[in-house]
Design brief:
This protein has a five-stranded antiparallel β-sheet with strand order 9-8-7-10-11. The chain has helices at residues 16-30, 63-71, 83-90, 94-100, 116-126, 167-170, 213-224, 267-279, and strands at 2-7, 36-41, 109-114, 131-135, 145-147, 156-163, 173-179, 182-190, 205-209, 232-239, 245-251. The chain is 28% helix and 25% strand. It is of the alpha+beta class.
């Protein structure tokens, strides 16, 4: 058996050491199951059986090309998370769908241009002076900015605006992972001093934790609100001003599953993937 891992375009060098290390880790995990890993840059991907999976980086930099790839993907060539699910998850407007399904999310306004007028409207709607602005299609905190009341508007096109959640500075974000519909592990991510971005690439500290019942219930609700069940998922959440968790992101494309922090170091994920591939 073999599995094709969709990797960045050859021109995508941001965090190259990170994603190359993840490729090596997945190859090592799958080898005991008799599975070879074939890394392929996703812009050059061609749907070929017998087995495919996806953990794509860099799609947010070429969203039209990514959309075209997924729209043309044939039904008889499996992706771990189905093409339609990936298309839905590529644009963070999916947060509106989660909210419509009754899932508590971080309040979000989607705008054509994050200018002074839109930021003022967002501050009034959220009752918050500090905001976070980022692209609707984004990853790895790309073009994400924290905007105070005296800061200039980023004038970012096709943007989303959210209130800055102060809890991210001390309590951090919580990520809960699900593999094949079952909860796997949870990681708390706290930003480095002086920063608000929790990614390891920016110095964030990651710790394996046990989520509360309320946090687990929220994660399950977010998964259930997806258009179809994902094979793997990450639910990011942060406490609001009342201490209640709210979903920041439901990530169904993200290639870093934090398997290095999982109690089994990813052995369970590899076994589930092997079983999935055998099923065809």
């Amino acid at each position: 058996m073999h599995v094709t891992l969709l990797t960045p375009d050859s021109s995508y060098n941001q965090f190259r050491d990170v994603w190359e290390a993840r490729i090596a880790m997945y190859a090592q995990l799958l080898a005991p199951h008799g599975i070879t890993l074939e890394p392929v840059a996703w812009p050059n991907a061609r749907p070929v059986r017998p087995a495919w999976a996806q953990l794509a980086w860099g799609y947010h930099l070429q969203p039209a090309r990514w959309e075209t790839l997924l729209a043309a993907w044939p039904d008889d060539v499996p992706l771990l998370n189905a093409p339609g699910l990936l298309r839905w998850n590529s644009d963070k407007r999916y947060l509106d769908d989660l909210q419509a399904a009754g899932v508590p999310v971080v309040p979000t306004r989607f705008v054509g241009l994050a200018n002074d007028a839109e930021l003022a409207a967002a501050r009034a709607a959220f009752g918050a002076d500090e905001l976070v602005v980022k692209p609707r299609i984004s990853a790895s905190a790309s073009y994400t900015s924290r905007v105070g009341p005296a800061d200039p508007a980023p004038n970012l096109a096709d943007a989303m605006i959210q209130p800055f959640m102060p809890a991210v500075l001390d309590q951090g974000e919580l990520s809960i992972f699900f593999f094949a519909g079952a909860p796997a592990h949870a990681v708390r991510k706290v930003a480095a001093p002086g920063d608000f971005r929790v990614q390891r690439e920016y110095g964030g500290a990651f710790t394996l934790v046990e989520p509360s019942d309320e946090e687990m219930q929220l994660a399950r609700a977010a998964i259930a609100a997806s258009p179809e069940p994902p094979f793997y998922a990450r639910v990011d959440m942060v406490p609001d001003s009342d201490g209640r968790p709210r979903v920041m992101e439901l990530e169904l494309i993200e290639p870093d599953l934090y398997l290095d922090l999982a109690p089994d170091r990813g052995a369970g994920f590899a076994a589930l993937l092997a079983e999935r591939l055998r099923q065809g």
